[in-house]
Amino acid sequence: MYPGIHAQFSGKDAEGFITQEKVSDRFKRWVQESTKGDTQTHSLGRLQDIIEKAKRNVWSLSDNDRKTLMNHLMQEIRERIIDGILDDFREDDAFAKQIRDVYDEVDRRVLADADVIGVTTSGLARRISVLRHIESRVVICEEAGEVLEAHMLSALIPSVQHLIQIGDHQQLRPQIVNHKLSMESHSGDLYQLDSSQFERMALGESGLPAFPTSQLNVQRRMRPEVSTLIRNTLYERLVDSDTVKNLTNVAGMGKNVFWLDHENQEDAADQESRGRSKSNKWEVAMTHALVRHIVRQGVYSSKDIAVLTPYVGQLQKLRSALQNDFEIVLSDRDQETLIREGHEDTTPNGTGHALLQKKAMTELLRIATVDNFQGEEAKVIIISLVRSNMDNKVGFLKTSNRINVLLSRAKHGMYLIGNSKTYANDSMWSNVLGMLRMTDSIGHKFSLHCDRHQETAAMVATPEDFEILSPQGGCRKQCDQ
Questions:
Q1: What strands lie across the sheet with 442-443, from one edge to the other?
Q2: What region, left, alpha or beta, does residue 397 occupy, with left being phi > 0 and alpha being psi -120 to 50 degrees?
Q3: Taking Cα atoms as reference points, which of 392, 459, 458, 448 lies closest to residue 420?
């Protein structure tokens, strides 16, 4: 940059003699002397004067001028290095774009010959440059009630002429990271980020009519005892298909739908849950005993049963208890939540993933949080409601969307374990409890039946009662079969 200055550190004097001192040592000595001065801000003209003076004799500079020159030289070196790095990045980006363009063209040619293209909303946004050239005219969005409106807007590429959204705005809304911006919080009402375009248009806005919708009213999943709970609260036009009206009764149980009422208090916040989730150890033990009893009937395998709970803290305790008898299956989202909540080292192998090994009862048992079970189903659903407190706080299960998902997953039978006094303060839960009481489907004891001795019935109120009154899933009567 400045050869006149650089030459003065070569070690040659005016007569051409070379000193014994190394060039690097001479420069270090000059730098050390330059650090004695104070850094001052100089005008451009003053800086140029210092540079010109240094070209004549760099050793004649004052300490302050040396410091100023040193800082200037370092700044120029940094800028040159940064400019070189940026040039390399720009060149790399140009090559990467050429490679992406080649792959995009290959994908475009393949997709252009397809009749139907399946893609997630995230995948669509990521490959928007390719999909724009396909010029699709019809977009069909499944589970539209769970899609953020911003994601739906990204799907409306210029060529789209017809948008079809399929979903249910009365089930779970889109998930957002910040709960304070959710419609479930008071502060979130202003933003409503988790309100899908589907929900907004179906319900209508202030001063505007609701958008026309069409509803499928015939359900083919739940037996009438289950569907009644959501028909009388949310879907008054819901009709049961003939295929669900004569489903077999749940083996070993006196009722196909039942709420086990108890007053065992939820666990206090502990170090394991870090105060961020709720759990109820008594419900864990009761759920474990009930699952074992139903599987022992020999009619349902554990893969026909799903255990649901609203809290990840309870999910972890259920997994720890049930994995001794079953191979536990968790969804990726539940597994990620367990790790995020600090439960990654609680499994036997310390990896956060349950060991898949053969257990006494084999088969796979699905346990899940309510939010991660939407769209799924099971023949028998067992629900641990967790909340049981003196303040009657329901927590997550105060929203009708989440209650709806919880009560509409079962096909043959559904069993809820929870404190009815806690949940009675919520209007929808109050309606559900009223319907259960009308059919004697709520009480402090499960009625267990032995399929080989139909006249017998065991009333169990605690986890220990199962082994005493219904050993091995049967009854205490001497069996000749």
A1: 327-329, 364-369, 305-309, 378-384, 410-418, 257-261, 442-443
A2: alpha
A3: 392
Helix (H) or strand (E) run with residue 354 in it? none
The three-state secondary structure class of 478 is coil
The domain limits of the chain are 3-75, 121-203, 218-473
Q: Tokens 């040039």 map to which residue?
A: 87
Closest among 221, 222, 217, 219 to 236, alpha carbons compared: 217
Place of tokens 């395998």: 301
Of 3.30.300.350, 3.90.10.10, 3.40.50.150, 3.40.50.300, which CATH number belongs to 121-203?
3.40.50.300
Handedness of CA 434, 440, 444, 446 (dihedral sign): negative
The encoded tokens of residue 11 equal 């070690």
* Helices of type H across 113-249: 121-126, 128-134, 149-154, 197-203, 224-231
Residue 327 DSSP symbol: E
pTM: predicted TM-score of the whole model, two decimal places = 0.74
Residue 480, classified by CB atoms within 10 Å of its CB into exposed (0-12), middle (13-18) or buried (19+), is: exposed
- The CATH label, of 3.40.50.720, 3.30.70.80, 3.40.50.12650, 3.40.50.300, for the domain at 218-473 is 3.40.50.300
CA angle 220, 225, 231 (to 5 degrees): 70
pLDDT by residue, tens only, the chain of 481 residues: 788 777 777 766 556 666 666 767 777 777 776 655 555 555 667 888 888 888 888 878 888 888 888 888 889 889 999 999 999 999 999 999 999 889 889 999 999 999 999 999 989 988 888 999 898 999 999 999 999 999 999 899 999 999 999 999 999 999 888 777 888 787 877 888 889 999 999 988 888 888 888 889 999 999 999 999 999 999 999 999 999 999 999 999 999 999 999 999 999 875 444 446 899 999 999 999 999 999 988 899 888 999 999 999 999 999 999 988 888 888 888 888 888 777 754 444 444 444 333 344 445 899 999 999 988 999 999 999 999 999 999 988 999 999 999 999 999 999 999 999 999 999 999 999 999 999 999 999 999 988 777 777 889 999 999 999 888 877 767 666 6
Query: Six-digit token pair at 269?
Result: 């916040």
Place of tokens 């008898």: 325
β-bridge partners, 36: none
Q: How far is CA 252 from CA 226, 247, 293, 361, 446, in A?
A: 18, 15, 8, 17, 11
Closest CA to 381 of 199, 281, 250, 195: 250
